[in-house]
Amino acid sequence: MNKEPTVDSQIATKRSLKSNTTILELHQLGINTHYSAPLIIRNIFKSIYISYVIT
Q: pTM (2 decimals)?
């Protein structure tokens, strides 16, 4: 059996870690939703953009 994780699984792990971080960030920013809505939207687009560029 091949014990090394495949590139696909590494990418999937990276992506899930990223999306989890984004969800946590959103949750933390949710305290100041009224103030930080544009910031949240920017972060979502940034994380999507970064994940596509990296992979």
A: 0.29
